[in-house]
Give the backbone structure.
Amino acid sequence: MQRNMIYVIRDEEGNFICAREIKKGYYYTTYTGITTGFTYYTGDVGKKTAEEKLKKLNEQFKCNFILDYIDLQDIPDGIRIENIITQKDFSNF
């Protein structure tokens, strides 16, 4: 079976973090695995995008999220756990 390596942002508990930008701020959603809304990044451009989002999330939310490089097939089906929202305008994100 061919490996499909991807980049994901994870929290300290191993959950997957999906960053979202809206007009009035920024939020992220936490997932236990793959489900509707789950986000991952591929290739060099995807890695750069993930690194930029990771940096902004850690700065703005004072988190210790990490970038992980894993096989897509190793991620189980999951559910959305929660949305974390801030109302600040992060126009540079």
